[in-house]
Amino acid sequence: MPQRIPRRRSSAVQITGTDLGFSGSGTPLDELHPSAASCVITTDSEARLVSQASAVESIELRTYVFLDSLQPQLAAYMGTVSQGFLPIPGDACLWLEVSPGMAVHRVTDIALKASTVRLGQMVVERAFGSLALYHRDQSNVLHSGDVVLEAIGSSVDQRTRCSVTWTEVIRAITPDHAVLINRQNRRGSMIQAGMSMYILETEPAGYVLLAANEAEKASNITVVDVKAVGAFGRLTLAGWEGDVNEAASAAMRSVEQINRRAR
Predict the structure, then answer these.
(1) Quick one: which of 82, 78, 98 has its CA closest to 148?
(2) Of 161, 255, 166, 167, nearest to 204 (Cα)?
(3) Is 144 left (phi over 0), alpha (psi -120 to 50) or beta?
(4) What does the pLDDT read at residue 149?
């Protein structure tokens, strides 16, 4: 008679939303991979990735920017580049940038399941990933941010400091210069010859959003360009000289506030 092959004992593990204490072989996970013990996975297809658990805790928080009330021009500009839900003036906004880039999918999933925020933008690059969350109620946006921070084991104080790599006010811009800028930046407003122009470059990129929002609150300026993704963020504002000076001061104060919080 053929010998009966004993069936391998299966682990009584519920995959979805359950703390896993055993691998498929019945061996405790903490013996195989100490960092994999008590991990939580969300779908059956992720069971094979149990040995790579706790990867969420290795996500680096590069940028955490909370905008209490989107100003009209910045909201309109963000709407031109948004692939998701469109922001409207007065919405609260949370901009997060994480590393590595693919981790932004996990962060997005956590944030959207935590509250009723809407996803306005998600950019996945090789090194960095960014997302924008909107809601009329500030508490919803802040709650999603808190849940994300807890999930990745980070805090606002641990975000990357803001480095200003360039800042300058160019006064009475020439017609040729104005025309070229307007042709290069088609999503924002146009700059007119004779206006002054304020430019700011930061690392990480997302901090230019806070600078732009605070500058628009403080002064009557024109938002020409706001690039908040990539290795560096770039902000271009225009207006008459006194207005631009005031906007530049407000933008730099917001950057200094970020670094004071990050100490």
Answers:
(1) 98
(2) 161
(3) alpha
(4) 97
Instruction: Give the residue-averaged pLDDT of 78-90.
Output: 93
* CB neighbours of residue 112 within 10 Å: 15
Interatomic CA distance for residues 167 and 181, integer angstroms: 17
pLDDT at 126: 87
Tell me if the bond preceding 204 is cis, omega within 30° of 0. Answer: yes
Q: Which residue matches tokens 């803001």? A: 162
Instruction: Report the alpha-carbon distance of residue 162 to residue 152 in Å, rounded.
Output: 21
β-pair partners for 197: 170, 238
Would the pLDDT of 263 be above 80?
no
- pLDDT for res 2: 54
DSSP lists the bridge partners of residue 202 as 164, 233
For residue 133, pLDDT beyond 60: yes
d(CA 174, CA 169) in angstroms, rounded, equals 14
pTM of the model: 0.78
From the list 253, 226, 232, 236, the residue with the least C-alpha distance to 62 is 232
Q: Quick one: tokens of 61? A: 């928080």
Please give the structure tokens belonging to residue 9. Answer: 């004992």
Spatial contact of 21 and 29, defined as CB atoms under 8 Å apart: yes
